[in-house]
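task queued by scheduler; priority normal; single chain, no ligands, no partner chains; default sampling; output format set to structure tokens
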Amino acid sequence: MNSDPIADYLTRVRNAIKANHRIVEIPSSNIKKEITKVLYEKGYIQSYKFEDSAVQGSIKIALKYNPNTKQSAIVKLERISKPGLRKYAGSETLPRVLNGLGIAILSTSKGVMTEKEARSQKVGGEVLCYVY
């Protein structure tokens, strides 16, 4: 039993990038699926596939690398809100990552989205992680 499945998700992706893997497989959950969709929409991963089985299912993520330099599109993944200390931000106090170059992924009442989308919809929520 994992106490923080989102941190486990981010760690698996981080480890796969450091080992230069093309594909990483992660146990599935609804929040992980939504985070994966946001990463794909913002261009941080190449593709993804949800495989549902009887028990839990899995997410297969194809990581994105620069063909010339072999450097990943994701430089850093950082977990912000932890089970022991939740971090929330209102619509006026949403964080900016690298002065707008990165994204913060939030869990809001309207679903999982980036801080830019949350700012435009004037909604706050729990700051899950930073990606850049």
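post-processing summary
- Residues 35 and 112 are 7 Å apart (CA to CA).
- The radius of gyration is 15 Å.
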